[in-house]
Each structure stands twice: as C-alpha cells, then as structure tokens.
Fold these 2 entries.
Entry 1:
Amino acid sequence: MKKCITPYKCHLFVCTNSRKGEQKSCGDEGTPDLKAAIKAEIKNRGWKGIVRVSTSGCLGVCESGPNIMIYPQKVLLSGVTRNDLPDIIAKVEEIVNVESLNVER
Ligand code: FES
C-alpha cells in the first residue's frame, strides 16, 4: 500500500443513492442533477484540480437529505436543493480561500 496526501483542498460527496421511491433517498430528490450543476460551477471557477465532486452512496443520514458531505472539513449539508447551488459554491469558496491562506503560511 502506498500512502499519499490528497491533492484536493476539499472533496464533496454528493449522495445520489436512489431507493426508487420505496424509502426516502437523496437520489430520488434531484441530487444527480445538482451534482452535475456543482461540477460545472467548480469547472467554471477554475477549481477543477483542487476541488473534487464525487457521487456517493448512502451517507447514513437519509432522513435529513438530500445530503452532501465535504471532507476533510467535516461539513454536512442537508436538505439541499438545486436552489442551494449558490450557497454550496459559497461554502466551497470559503474553504478554498481558507485552505489557500493555510498553505501560504
Ligand atoms: S440516501 Fe442519501 S444519505 Fe442515505
């Protein structure tokens, strides 16, 4: 095993788990489209090499979903909708800016 340090300042895990309407799940509430919108915005802002957006399976907090977890900052965004895109990007921007300050010290 090789142990490395991630190249990303933060990594967004967007739960897209779908239970096909049989039980509450993030993927049934629009997260695949939201993930695509987040990825597009990350690319537009030039953060592609420092912010990663990945599809995630169930994050274990379905009832509060749809959910996005941000690591390594340990941020859980719950009840997200497409309308939250500006706030999600603002949170990522805050992380990118703080992490940049930490690197410069
Ligand atoms: S289905 Fe998304 S947290 Fe469980």
Note: The chain has two helices and four strands.
Entry 2:
Amino acid sequence: MREEPGGSLILYHGWSSSASRKVRFALAEKQLAYTSHPINVRKNEHHAPAYRKINPNGLVPALVHNGVQLIESTFIGEYLDEAFPDRPIRPADPVERHAMRLWCRDVDEKYLPAVLKHNWQLTIHPIAREWSDAELDEKLANIPNPQRRQFWYRMARDPFTRDELEEATAVMRGLIRQMEETLSVSDRPWLTGETFSLADISVTPYVKRIEELDPAQLDPSTNPRTADWWQRLTARPGFQAAHIGAYSEQADPEYPGPRVTDNPVDT
Ligand SMILES: N[C@@H](CCC(=O)N[C@@H](CS)C(=O)NCC(=O)O)C(=O)O
C-alpha cells in the first residue's frame, strides 16, 4: 500500500448508492487508500444522530479527510483532485473543465432523482410499506431533508406509479442520448475530450443502472459511441477497484462488500 502523504481518508458510503459509487470511483482512479465505512440506507443508518454529525443532510456519501468532514459527491470529487493533484481527474483546459461541471450538474439534478425512483421502488418500498403509522412518524422525524422525507413517505404509503417510473426511465435514456451526441460530435474518447474526468466518473453509476434496466441502450447497434465508451471505461482498473456491481446485489442489507481498507489499484 502506498503511504498516503495527505493523511487519513474515511469514506462513509452505500455500496449500491450512485453518489457513493462516484466517490469510490474517484478514489480508485486517484489510487488513494481509504478506510471504508459502509452505511446501510435500508436500515436507516444514515438517519442516525451519529451519522448526521458527519453529514447533516443525512445522505451518503461523506468523506472525512484528516478529521475534516466533506459532503456532496461532486464536490468531494473536485476536492480530492485539488487535495491530491497526482493522477488528475479534471481536464486542465478551462473549457473542458466547464463542460465537465455541466455533466456533473446534470447528473446531480436530473439523473440522480430519476434513478432513485427505480432504486427505491425496488428496495425501499418493500420495507417501508410494512411500517406502522407510529414507526413511519418516528422515521420521518429523523430525516433532515424535506424532499427526501417526502420520498420516504411515498415509499411507505404512496409508491411511484407506472407512469412515474416510465418517465424516470425516459430521463435516463436521455442521458445515453446526450452522451451519444457528445461523443459523436467530438470524436474523442471521453466526455470532455482526451482526458478521462469527473464527467465520465459522474455518469458511470447511471450508465451501469441503465445497463441493468434497459440493456439495449448500450448495444453497439443502438448507441455505438456510448457502447464503445462503456467498454473502454469498464476496462479501467479504477472501475474494477470501485466495486460498482449489480444494483440489487449491492442493495441487499446483508451484502458483505469487499473489505476495502486499501485501494486495490495501488501498487
Ligand atoms: N447530492 C448528494 C446526493 C446524495 C444522495 O442522494 N445519496 C443517496 C444515495 S445515492 C442517499 O443518501 N439516499 C438516502 C436518503 O435519501 O434517505 C451527493 O451527491 O452527495
């Protein structure tokens, strides 16, 4: 293991969480050793007071670097690249960096809410619908984010309709369309150009989920550029080390996860 000159990194994350997957991928690409602290969202561990001291929004992931608490996956990615400049994951060119940030914003604002609908319906709804009204009230009282409180309420009492889920799938297909267009126009290997960047990292958990929900989207005959990008991306050692596996397997509360205390990419 490489001795980390920047000190200790502790990652609080969910194995199946899209935002956590982004940060694991960034850490792996930068070959940074970290201590893995999995948080089980299905067991509401992220709403516990001790965790909310680390991330007051009650969301995963959170990264603690030498005792400093960092939240928001996109900002954590940028932070890592600033704090640890080796193996950059941001383009040096300001125009490309701007493009990278636009991708990251789209992921956070558009694609995360869409994928959450599918993921929650599958894994949270079966648990939350069993809660009594008193249990539900108690759980909702621990959720700091009003939008997520509403999400949890819906999972318990008013699950997403077929139309809402189809709408979410359409949004996710829109990501592939956007990628296909960008890669075709630029004719370059990565979303912002020649440099693999946080833009590619950010979309990865969503492309992985689309691969599971609608595999035809990644067929070379449908979206050749994106299919090619996906092949190149999944061959990266950083992707392998980030443990971005099958959603339903990693969402299982009993999923043991690899014992990631070091970054296995490290040599
Ligand atoms: N903008 C935040 C979003 C984090 C987020 O939504 N995390 C999800 C998992 S992907 C979560 O903690 N969900 C649990 C909940 O909403 O209660 C980030 O990028 O870090």
Note: The CA atoms of residues 1 and 82 lie 22 Å apart.
